[in-house]
Amino acid sequence: MYLKDKHIEAMKHIATYKFLTSSQLVKLGLNKHRGDVTNNLKQLTDQKRPLIDKITFPVDPEKGKLESIYYLTSRGVKFLIEDLDYPEDQIKATKSKPTSTQTYFHRKSTIDFHICLREWLNCNDGSVVFLNYDFDKVGNNRSKDRIQHLKAINSLELDNGVSFIPDAITKFKVAERDYLFLFEQHNGKSSKRLIEQLCLHAIAISEGIASQKYNFERSNRVVVVCEFETLKNIVTYKMKQMKIFDNLHNFFIFKTNDEMKNYFFSDWSLISGQKVDFI
């Protein structure tokens, strides 16, 4: 099958990030405009057995029309591996498609973080060792052994048996030094669930849960990105009053989505409000 360079480039981007919208593909440099992305990918999505498919969503009552999400089909995965010798372990294949608008913005924002991270690493002689999302699964529900059924790759179990799933877990390298970061994306204006999740992170850091799981010699850091600045400020204020975070102020860094997109490396906030760099 003959494909244009832009088609192959789009497939490789989607293999890396799993799901992408046209605006995200514009940010990645595929085309200058969303309309050009749509036109470019029609050849791949309109086939009888497409290499790339897309998920469309109903109009959101507050946000209006939502962008479609592109993903690789099983045929697209096979094409990358067999025709382009693309490494299979670098392909984020889709086991289930997101169809709910309830998770749409959260998932899109989580992928935005992945894009920003890779762009920054590419400019600073760094590389991603791995990055897994909360919606990445491992296993097979057809197995007779329930232990082998689908489960979240990111699931972490505390010493008391309580499990939680960070929105993303990544290990990356800069200047021959490894880093392990856990990521939380928070959409909306309610602080309760986010603080509960960050308390679990605090316990996990104290118990070395992620460091043990990923064979990392230091404690991990937690990146928290909030949709709204007011929510970010409320959360850090409350965390300053909580004893569980007393010795962990340097392990949590905060930004809003807009701040992250505008300047990724610098001006992250600690719980105390002090500004620090990403690493």
From TrEMBL:
InterPro entries: Replic_Relax. It holds the Pfam family Replic_Relax. It comes from the Bacteria. This is Replication-relaxation family protein.
